[in-house]
Amino acid sequence: MSHAADRDPEFTFELRVCRWAEQAWHPDGPRPAFVARQLGTRKRRWDTVVVEVDPQAFATRRDLSTRGLDSDLLRVVRHAPEDWQWYRDAIPHPGFPWRHVIAAVHRAAGRGLVETRRGKRNRVEYRRKAPYSDWVRRIVAIENKPNLDASAARALGEQLTHDVSRSLADEVWVATETTGRRVEPALLEDIPVEVGILSVDADDSAEVLWHPSTLSPSPDDARRRLVLAERAYDKGWRNYVETMRPDCRHFELSRRGRALIPYCAAKACHQSQRECAGSCSQFEPEPPQWRTKGWPIEGGPGKGIQRLLDQRTERMRERVTEP
What we know:
Layout: E1 5-6, H1 9-24, E2 33-40, E3 45-53, H2 55-64, H3 71-78, E4 85-86, H4 87-90, H5 98-110, E5 114-118, E6 124-128, E7 136-144, H6 150-166, E8 171-177, E9 196-200, E10 206-210, H7 222-235, E11 251-256, E12 259-264, E13 269-270, H8 301-320
Parallel strand pairs: 1-13, 7-8, 8-9
Antiparallel strand pairs: 2-3, 3-7, 4-6, 5-6, 9-10, 11-12
């Protein structure tokens, strides 16, 4: 299986880079961090996002919730007062109607993030259960191009220039497949000098071909960066299974380097997310007996795969907080 064809080489390479980053970040020495994929803003989406954290503060953040906070919940939780207070006095004016904020306050209470009560004049008051810690140290963006030839470099050039000038991330990298040539082609391509270059080999070991410059994110982007970090925390990088069909009898996980990569036994390939769907001509639902005999009653092999990937994500998050 390790030699199976890739229907989408960039997708499988991306998963391998995520696994490498999860195991070995940072190239200059170990740093506590977790990894997500396919995240960004309305104007820009990154292949891989590495969020470097303060381990102690991250442990406090995990105690608050093991799920990520969207922008509305984040506003409520960050400004939650220590003692009871009317929510409009505690939260800065959001720039849109307060009715959306009060809905978020109730949603936060429903998730156990804050406590609410009715105060004077029947006003909704709330208070925090625990302070929201300053847990994010740095955000790093990685673009993945296994075959970084001249045309791929040209296509990336404008995006990378935008990343450097925008400085939403603290570092920007390009990861490419090792070719074994005396001079790796990536070094010869037109990539902004501020962008680092990683060469990843078949065993998912990485070599730094070019070190990136440290960028200077604007303080005005602090909240936007925190929203991005929260999305990364919630999403992780193994969530690809949510857009595929692990309930197909042909769906498997195959080891590729250090990563577990989706594998289609019917097509004998590492399939793409695009084709692994109910519309696939080879799609066959798991037989009902797979879910009731010789397998946990919580579901069949597909559910088992989802649990396995979720458990690995949680295990890596817990490792970040270990001394």
